[in-house]
Amino acid sequence: MSRNPYVRAITAEWIFRHPRYLRYMAREFSCLFIGGWTLLMVWGLKALSEGPAAWAVFLEILRTPQSIVFHVLALGFAVYHSITWFNLTPKALPLQRGEEFVADAAISGAHFAAWAALSLAVLYLAGAF
Amino acid sequence: MAVSNKPIVWGPFAAGGTLTAFLTPALILLMLLAALGYTPDLLAYERLHAFAGHWLVKLALAGIVFLSLWSAAHRLRITCTDLGLRADGAVAAIVYAVALAGTGASVLYLLRI
Fold this sequence. Notes:
The structure holds 2 protein chains of 2 kinds.
Chain A: H1 19-50, H2 52-62, H3 65-87, H4 89-92, E1 96-97, E2 100-101, H5 104-125
Antiparallel strand pairs in A: 1-2
Chain B: H1 6-35, H2 45-52, H3 55-82, H4 88-112
Helix pairs in contact in B: 1-3, 3-4
């Protein structure tokens, strides 16, 4: 007797079963914005390599309302990715001192502090303020 | 022992996830400021062209592009599985190809600067 193997249907419906799943999907969807923005950066490098006129056009396109909306969304998703990533660091890098493990908050806290310092340094060195 | 290629795709994903967590929000904010008309000094053509002209900066930019695109590609692949897409092989081929193509393009443009 031969039967077709049972293939369980997988749908996207599970996402809405619990707020936790929705937060998980929001984190995973950050990849579309981070990847999309990186491709925009590659396009910027193209403009930069073509000379001042092409760069001016690139900056002009950045100033369109669609670009501003995209950048605001991308910034939100990128920050959400950072927060979720650093919150997981105690799981990924548990530190043992003698018998005790270093507190989770100390490990993620160190990452958040380094993130803040690095972001401020980048903004300062780029002349944003 | 079974041979697995998982570490090869997962390594750059973890590295890219860490890099984008630390750096990408600040970089997006710089571009957002430019988009709003408050262009940071670095994004003026003369300064950025000189800055990106240094070989070390080119190397760093190519590295940022590769790791960001790769980790986004890997995450998108996993998300496609989560959403019920069964064609993992095809999805993997497409997303990693886009990541590598984007990296290749950035290297090409950086070499012209």
